[in-house]
UniProtKB/TrEMBL annotation:
InterPro entries: AraC-bd (IPR003313), Homeodomain-like_sf (IPR009057), HTH-like (IPR037923), HTH_AraC (IPR018060), Tscrpt_reg_AraC-type_HTH (IPR020449). PANTHER family: ARAC-FAMILY TRANSCRIPTIONAL REGULATOR, HTH-TYPE TRANSCRIPTIONAL REGULATOR EXSA. It comes from Microlunatus soli. Pfam families: AraC_binding, HTH_18. PROSITE patterns: HTH_ARAC_FAMILY_2. It comes from the Bacteria. GO terms for molecular function: DNA-binding transcription factor activity; sequence-specific DNA binding. This is AraC-type DNA-binding protein. Keywords: DNA-binding, Transcription, Transcription regulation. Residues 173-271 form the HTH araC/xylS-type domain.
Length: 274
């Protein structure tokens, strides 16, 4: 009976080597409106985005149960067992299947997380518009339309950044921002942490969570990026820039800069001034 009360539409796409350079592949898209049969103990080999426009139900992911409300979206990650479905009133569900190397970036910046798979989103309009565009493009069945689908999918994933972060992620983001402000001071990671009132372990965990990098290379990158701006936009001597970026030894600064950028500070400045 449930399936007879459900409107369905779906389209699936093969893997086209010609589109590998885009970094993101849409493997399928679909709509279910009504009382679809629940998904039970499923494990995917790819990623999925599920958006619930109306209705309510339940999601179980990695053994944790979540209540799904209208306007929610949830991520399904490969290798993680999950179940989900609407309550007795049904729901209107849209879904996308995708993979590709660009997903690693979305994971590092926290757009897609296994720890917090369910979100309320402020990007509902963008998601609905994206689904509508992909449905139209899916009917064309060409390499160009599939490339446009991949671009639309990326825009939709970015639109989910309007979702409210968890309190822990909000705290991490604020802590990393404050650490970034101290990156050009001649302080170690532990000294920066102490200045911010947290332990070194807490700061390292927050930076790893927010950026996907260890604390030391992340702070080095911030220093070098600031130095690049100074080299390009000012006439300050390299030794002065080194000091402003927290380096007492200009020679050490030059070696660190060269190791990070691939050319010396002087060569970088010459390139930018051509």
């Amino acid at each position: 009976m449930a399936s007879e009360q459900t409107t369905r539409w779906s389209a699936y796409f093969g893997r086209s080597p010609a589109l590998d350079g885009l970094g993101l592949r849409c493997l399928g898209v679909g709509l279910q409106d009504g009382h679809p049969a629940p998904v039970v103990d499923r494990v995917l080999e790819h990623y999925a985005l599920v958006h619930i426009e109306s209705g309510a139900g339940t999601l179980v992911s990695a053994g944790e149960q979540h209540g799904v409300m209208p306007g929610s979206l949830f991520w399904l990650l490969p290798g993680i067992r999950h179940s989900y479905g609407p309550d007795e009133r049904g729901w209107r569900e849209r879904w996308l299947l995708f993979d590709g190397p660009a997903v690693d970036v979305f994971l590092r910046v926290g757009l897609i997380t296994a720890e917090s798979p369910l979100r309320r989103t402020a990007g509902t309009r963008a998601l609905l518009d994206g689904f509508a565009r992909i449905r139209t493009l899916a009917e064309q069945r060409s390499a160009l339309s599939e490339a446009a689908i991949a671009v639309t999918l990326q825009e939709m994933i970015l639109a989910t950044s309007g979702s409210g972060p968890s309190p822990q992620r909000a705290d991490d983001h604020q802590l990393v921002d404050r650490a970034r402000d101290l990156a050009t001071s001649p302080l170690t990671v532990d000294q920066i942490a102490a200045r911010l009132g947290v332990t070194g372990a807490e700061l390292r965990r927050a930076i790893r969570s927010e950026t996907g990098l260890a604390a030391k290379p992340y702070l080095l990158g911030v220093r070098i990026e600031i130095a690049q701006s100074m080299l390009a936009d000012s006439d300050a001597r390299v030794s002065q820039i080194a000091h402003r970026c927290g380096y007492d030894d200009p020679g050490y600064f030059s070696r660190a800069f060269t190791g990070y950028v691939g050319i010396s500070p002087t060569q970088f400045r010459e390139q930018q001034q051509r």
